[in-house]
Amino acid sequence: MQTTNHKGSAFALAISAALMFGISGAIASDALADISPARAAQSRAMVAVVLLLPYAWYRRKLASRGPWSVLLLFGASLTAVNVAYYEAVDRIGVGPGMTLQFLAPIMVLVWMRTAEHRSILRSAWLAAAAALVGTALIAEVWQGSSMDLIGVGAGLAAAATFAAYLVIGERLGATMAPSGIMAYGFTISALMWAVIQPIWSFPTDLPTKVWGELLWMGLLGTAIPFMLELQALQRASAALVGVIATAEPVIGAVAALLLFSEKMASIQVVGMVLIVGAVASVQQRGVAEVEVPLDAGR
Is the pTM value of this prediction over 0.90? Predict the structure, then answer.
């Protein structure tokens, strides 16, 4: 019963994170008309640090009982996944870039099977594959331009770093509270961005609407959903959380329809059904024959 409760709460947390990420993605698409993707990613990290670091300090959640090298890898993965994804989007388009990034759940399943020697349910492999196909249909990848090898490589790097984020986040969740993990992770990410793009060169002549959208992206599209996702990783495996995360493009498509009146083709609706089915499958069946949730009492 406890395992069932853990899985149910993990699903609720992960789907809530996907909801926030999906809505934020639709808002980001509007903001990116006035600011570069890299600067948008940098602002997300900066807003998250300003919010999470004082909160984690006040709640006394900054103590780490694990190696600092893992925290550094976590912060690097947060930075790298944004850099790689935006490079892929710039070179091969949003559709192919998004589809390549959501290879991550399959990569996590491979990691669990080969490195952790867990026995993976056949239904989990099918769910991950269905989610990937659904993402491709929503993104309409066939409408993209000719493939750029560097762009494809960047998309694969985005998938690998997203998978690394999930696996490392699951490991860190055993030794730290989510607020502390994210405070350190985004502090490291913000420092990396400051080296890549100095803060003093950040554009200040943005429209008021864009400043509001950046604040939304940093708070409700970054700080809070990442914390929810980490709380989910304390209760369920990285693969299960990863497959649930594929609900993000479904939510993003619906949000774009409601907020910006973007239309959806019939094939995109089919993709949405596939993803919803995949998410429902892993929520009901799990991904491994024996699910061992981590300590959720933090």
Answer: no
- Domain carrying residue 236: 2-285
Residue 194 lies in a domain: yes
pLDDT over 70 (residue 297): no
How far is the C-alpha of 266 from the C-alpha of 202, rounded, in Å? 41
Question: Does the residue 213 lie in any domain?
Answer: yes
Residue found by looking up tokens 């991904």 in the block: 287
Helices (H) and strands (E) in the chain, counts: 13, 0
DSSP 86-109: HHHHHHH-HHHHHHHHTTHHHHHH
Q: Is residue 67 one of the residues assigned to a domain?
A: yes
Longest Cα separation, the chain: 55
Spatial distance between the Cα atoms of 70 and 87, rounded to a whole number of angstroms:
25
* Digit-coded pLDDT (tens) for 247-272: 777 777 777 677 766 666 777 778 77
Q: What is the pLDDT of residues 33-66, one digit of tens each?
A: 788 878 888 898 999 999 899 988 988 888 766 6
Torsion of CA 270, 132, 296, 110, to 10 degrees: 150
Count of structural domains within the chain: 1
